[in-house]
Amino acid sequence: MFYNYYQYDDYNFDSCVAKGVCSTDPTISSLQEVIIMYMKQLAFYTLRLKKQGVTNKVIRDNILNTISGLVSNTDYSQEQFKTIIMTIYDNLRQSKILYERICKNNNLSSNKLEAQLKINKNFDLNNAIKQGEKEFIRKNKLLDSKHRHIFEIMFLIIKNVSINLIQLKSYGIEHDDAYYAMLQVLSAMNYKKTSTESLKRLLKNFIQINYKLIKQLHHKENEFYGNPEPTEVSFSTRSGKAILVSGSNLTELEDVLKATKGLNIDVYTHGSMIMGHTHPKLKVYNQLKGQFGLGVENCLLDFATFPGAILMTKNSLQNIEYLYRGRLFTTDITVPKGVTQIKNKDFRPLIKSANDAKGFAKGQIRESLKIGYNEKVIENRVNEVITKILSRDIKHIIIVGILNHTSLQKKYFSRLLKTLPANMHAITLSTYTPSTNTFQINSSYDFMLMYKILEDMNKKIENKTFDISIFLTKCDKYAISNMLNLKELGVKNIFLSHCSPISINPVIVDAMKDIYNIKSITMPKEDLDTILKSA
Prior knowledge:
By secondary structure, this protein is of the alpha/beta class. The protein has 3 domains: 21-223, no CATH class; 231-356, Rossmann fold, CATH 3.40.50; 374-533, Rossmann fold (3-Layer(aba) Sandwich), CATH 3.40.50. The protein is 49% helix and 11% strand. It is built from 18 helices and 14 strands. The protein has helices at 15-19, 26-51, 57-72, 78-105, 125-142, 145-169, 176-188, 196-225, 250-259, 280-283, 299-305, 348-356, 375-390, 407-418, 447-460, 479-488, 506-516, 524-533; strands at residues 231-233, 241-246, 265-270, 288-291, 309-312, 328-330, 339-341, 369-371, 396-401, 424-428, 438-440, 467-472, 493-496, 519-520. It has a 6-stranded parallel β-sheet with strand order 4-3-2-5-6-7, covered by helices on one side. The longest helix has 30 residues, at 196-225.
């Protein structure tokens, strides 16, 4: 039995497992292929216009919103896809005409891309679907598996960068350098003959840019809402009307809290939004009661059993089901059928839905979770570990994170940590096993803490005399970016627990194993042996 195999862990309420269907509808997949085709060409012409001093804010917003929308929403109607395709095509057509005109007026030679799909005012969506199918087949014929895998990873990082740029914009920050770097990566996907090594070098630079965005976003969140503090987060519920806020956009959580202030409505968080409870400026809202459910992997059950209104913050729409359609709201620009769009911070429809819903009749008492940390305590303990490394007492570092909540994960890490050899030290961001060579921090979803620990070690130990292995227990749309960031920070072995297809496409997981030697969590003894053999 493998510890990461989903049939034996607690992800029984993943919508893929519950429905027995984990693939994207072929029609939707074909339409997405058409959008990606045009996005790559639009990136090509946008970069060439930039060299001529021409920029377009509307096109920039369309590119970011379209790419970030493809991360989480596969439930657009065909008409919505048609609108998206026509918008991007119109942007592409305008950009191409303007670029050719500038080249002609300035006697410059122009580079062109041959359009794979012609669109006119009588645009036929069925033809677009067929064209998307042909493009998919054409790509598979032209590219070997490694090329396809790199393109899959590149596009996923592009999506993450788009989301980070949109979130930074909510704090008043626009990053032109990162935006155009994203377009360069997107445009590189137009060229099928580029070597895999060239693509990996381009991706390496892009990963570093994304890492800077992540750090800046974290800094801005702390600047706006205060540095995270150790906090006891309740998983209990109480009787009354309620709103659930899911995703990771703290500014939208604050908007909901402002809108519900003074009303008799409790607000609960879901998934990564749990970190909102650790920020001092969000703690002041009395209606922020706690965390509900187990996260993205179990959202089918979580949302179906929540008796109130649910807000999915920007770029976090993951699962739209008839069980809770009508109670689901989003701030996204394009909205699936059965979901209500929130515009201009007008949360009255969300509040009305919460009041109309039955709410919690009695509430339930559940075990709370302490998250957050004291930076000084962690700094002192990490310095102790560094001292032992320098004296050669520690040869291997294991970091376990982030939050693990399945019963088998707990059993796995309990056994793993109890069997560590004397020259191996564990820093665990979740599981607690009393041991002289284990340091435990309840950081929950905070990847930045893991980054900070690694940066401190790299800074203070000039000649690296130790190996780092990391066990990741949380899969979401940022997991691939985080793994690549960790590789850049010098992590030797990364072990990944089972990722539901709703969180990460299995093709991407296979690509990470193939290109970056990411490993699957198996059995404690076997994984420890792998670490020791790789030293």
